[in-house]
Design brief:
Number of strands: 3
Order of helices and strands: EEEH
Number of helices: 1
Structural class: alpha+beta
Strand order of the largest sheet: 1-2-3
Helix content: 25-40%
């Protein structure tokens, strides 16, 4: 996926993953994940830990 959209309401978070092709203005969402706030926060922490491990092994990731 090179596209991610995140939405939320009081009870859930929606993560929509897809492919975006700027040369033809085409966006295709292929996966949607709906989860609760507790699991969204757990995912955030897990991703943070994985990025820290990656940077420790391969070096810092440049900010976009």
């Amino acid at each position: 996926a090179n596209y991610l959209e995140i939405g939320h309401n009081e009870h859930e978070f929606l993560l929509a993953f897809g492919q975006s092709y700027p040369e033809d203005d085409y966006l295709r969402v292929h996966t949607r994940i709906v989860t609760g706030p507790v699991y969204a926060k757990a995912f955030l922490h897990l991703l943070h830990e994985a990025l820290a491990q990656y940077e420790e092994r391969f070096g810092l990731i440049d900010e976009p």
